[in-house]
Design goal:
The chain is mainly alpha-helical and 88 residues long. The chain has 4 helices and 2 strands. The chain has a domain of 54 residues.
Length: 88
């Protein structure tokens, strides 16, 4: 998604919350027929809608960059470590 690739995911993955913000039709049931329908629906979209969805993918995933997430992870890890050390 960060590269602008529009994913089609199942409703049993964590990424579905982000993908739904692009277009809820990209989140499909876990069965071949529904996944195929999702792919066909995407292929049938006009070029301008695909570009719009691609741009939305890039925008929504900006906050998942390593420069943002690593410091956030370290901060949360230290908080957890301190709570464990203090016996909370």
């Amino acid at each position: 998604m960060r590269a602008g690739v529009v994913p089609i995911v199942t409703n049993h993955v964590g990424a579905k919350e982000v993908v739904e913000k692009v277009d809820s039709n990209l989140v499909r049931d876990v069965n071949p027929k529904d996944l195929a329908e999702g792919i066909k629906n995407y292929i049938d979209l006009d070029k301008s809608r695909k570009k719009e969805m691609s741009a939305t993918c890039r925008e929504l995933t900006k906050k998942y960059r390593e420069k943002v997430k690593v410091p956030e992870f370290k901060e949360n890890f230290n908080i957890l470590r301190d709570k464990i050390s203090d016996g909370e």
